[in-house]
Design a protein that fits this description.
The chain is mainly α. The protein is 51% helix and 5% strand. The protein has seven helices and three strands. It has a three-stranded antiparallel sheet with strand order 1-3-2, with helices on one face. 18% of the residues are buried.
């Protein structure tokens, strides 16, 4: 029987690197062989291939930082701040970084304890606007807070998936 972590790592690799699970293709297949000029080309207001590659890599990099014990510092407002792609070397650097991060991310997921999947994965700790991943139970952070009103509010609030 496939464990949660193995199943998730397998799905990540299928979507990002080597599978045909979605639309009979994957990201690697779609960006490999694309010229830098094709990658930066935009049709009207749509995002370019380079922008989408950067966007996905931005989130993968941010999650990798957290999985390494760091703080979650990524923000939606910066997720499309693609540095200029001016030549083949710039595009190759972005694609190489994306593919490397995608594999590293899948490896980290593969090595996670299966118990993590039944726990809170990301929480605000210690309620100072820094989001951090806690591999251990997150409820501990909430109870350590000195602000009991915030603690009560967090405890009683509905989860996003419980809202009608």
């Amino acid at each position: 029987m496939e464990t949660n972590k193995i199943a998730l790592a397998h799905r990540l690799r299928e979507v990002l690197l080597n599978g045909t699970w979605i639309a009979n293709t994957n990201f690697k297949e779609q960006i490999t062989g694309v010229s830098w000029k094709e990658a930066i080309y935009r049709v009207e207001q749509l995002n370019s291939i380079a922008m989408l590659t950067y966007h996905i890599n931005y989130y993968i990099q941010g999650l990798l930082e957290v999985l390494r014990g760091g703080t979650l510092t990524i923000h939606d407002q910066f997720s499309f701040d693609l540095p200029d792609i001016r030549n083949k070397k710039d595009w190759e650097h972005l694609t190489k970084e994306f593919l490397s991060n995608a594999e590293l991310f899948a490896r980290h997921v593969e090595q996670m304890d299966d118990q993590i999947f039944s726990q809170t994965f990301v929480c605000f700790g210690p309620l100072n606007n820094q989001t951090k991943l806690h591999i251990k139970k997150c409820n501990l952070c909430l109870w350590k807070s000195e602000n009991s009103a915030v603690r009560r509010s967090l405890k009683s609030s509905k989860k996003p998936w419980d809202r009608a």
